UniProtKB/TrEMBL annotation:
Keywords: Signal. Pfam families: DUF3617. The lineage of its organism: Bacteria, Pseudomonadati, Pseudomonadota, Betaproteobacteria, Burkholderiales. Residues 120-147 are annotated as: Disordered. This is DUF3617 domain-containing protein. It comes from Comamonas flocculans. Residues 1-22 form the signal peptide.
Amino acid sequence: MTAMRALLTLLLLALGSSLALAQDIKLKPGLWEVQGSMKTSSGRLEAAMAQMQAELAKMPPEQRRQMEQMMRANGMGAGGNAMNHTVKICMTQKDVDLDQIKSSDDCTHKVRRSGPKTLQMSFQCTGSDGSGPSSGEGTVNLDSPTAYRGQYKMRTTADGQPEQMDFSQQGKWLSADCGKVKPLGQQ
């Protein structure tokens, strides 16, 4: 689940940084709801998630409630389905005003093409954080300052085997006030 959270955070940070690059695009800062789905080429991750769901269902009610609270605190919906999920993120004015993608020690990002409502990006991560090397690309379409859609492909290695993950997401702006949700990169 940590790898899933790391991937989602990477994509959201890249998205927040990337969308500001297209000159006609200006997202509203604040609280966003992001719905996403992921599919792997091998199906192993889906099987592991199904097993986790089965284990969760076997837990005593109090323990299950604690696990679900922990998952919600980490941005996952109740039930913990990381393959299809909804998270809330906070994008600050600084996030939407960035004029370039910030690379981390582990990952580099590049914009390959942008237009008034479309942005294509690529990323490459060394895996120095223990997650293994990965690379990918994505396209983000801005429907309005309060809505976007994205499609991404990521190539990585899982248990020594090549794996491709296809990820799609939709974001919608909820409020200027993020409430208790911490800004991107501060989770």
